[in-house]
Amino acid sequence: MLEKIKFEKFTAFESLEIPLSTGINIFIGANGTGKTHILKAIYATCDVTKSQKSLAEKTNRVFLPSGEQMGRLVKRAKGHISGYFEVTRRIADRQKSLTIRLSLTNHTKQPATLSGSYKQWLEHSLESVYIPVKDMMANAPGFRSLYNLRHIHFEEVYADIIDRVFLGHLRGPTDTRRKKLLAILQRAMDGKIISKKEEFFLKNKQGELEFTLLAEGIRKLGLLWVLIQNGTLINGTILCWDEPETNLNPKLMRTVVEILLELQRLGVQIFLTTHDYVVLKEFDLQAKNTDKILFHSLYRNTGEIEVASTESYLNISPNVIDDSFGSIVDREIDKSMGNLGK
Length: 342
Description:
- By secondary structure, the chain is α/β, with parallel strands linked by helices.
- The protein is 35% helix and 27% strand.
- The chain has 2 domains: 2-127 and 234-340, Rossmann fold (3-Layer(aba) Sandwich); 136-233, no CATH class.
- The chain has helices at 35-51, 55-63, 118-123, 143-149, 156-165, 176-189, 216-229, 253-265, 277-286, 320-340; strands spanning 2-10, 13-19, 24-29, 82-91, 96-105, 113-116, 128-131, 192-196, 199-204, 207-210, 238-242, 269-273, 293-301, 304-310.
- Strands 7-11-12-3-13-14 form a 6-stranded mixed beta sheet. Strands 2-1-4-5-6 form a 5-stranded antiparallel beta sheet.
């Protein structure tokens, strides 16, 4: 499991260190505070244990800077600037921590360098999944072939998630806890997911409905169903999910949070970003005392990004989501009072 991540002059960050929960990590903050960049850095360091790419190559493909010039990932400033990000993980069976660091400069001719326990890091593989904001299951037919054969401007997380959904089933019967999760999702979707020739369908009593005709919110539930059903989301997996609420009816967030909490109890370490009040409240309402949840509030202080982490929803500060909803309530009261006075 990952223990912490640190940035120095990397993308939007001047200097930032974030402790990580072994359960669920929820990142909130205004636009431009680097939430997605944190998830991408985490995912890149995990995926290299299986992708057979170097961390520099994987980072470049996941972030996709202009011209694939890695130096553009260094925080913008005049002159020669160096930056890095590093991730620390705990190796449970060895009772020790490993740290790797990717360092780079804004001089693009200078290659990125690796330091830390990189060889040992690769010896302990990590299953990881990155769910981007945009659904890709409806676009799956032919996308992998196109991505592998042509230079198209897509961040690699889009190709990677399609690879994950096309993995074969785990050998043996589905265990009881995974069956329970699949049943919850099937009730919410009113069906289960099948695939034919790289095309996905929702199958129920009415027939088979192709993903291109499904609401994107239902596709998100379908993606979870597939990742649980094919054994991708199992004990030890790292799940990064960017804005799960996008295109999802708020009513369905109850199901999504229920699934995420249960996955955490199964041993999945989760990282997600959100701008949504319902997401935060569902975690607050559904979480048990034994659940491991850490809220990370990213904010700017004199122009630089800082973080405040807490285990309690009530102690999130600053909380840009609550502040925004509070402002709406205040404006509604002001409008109502104004109308009464007329």
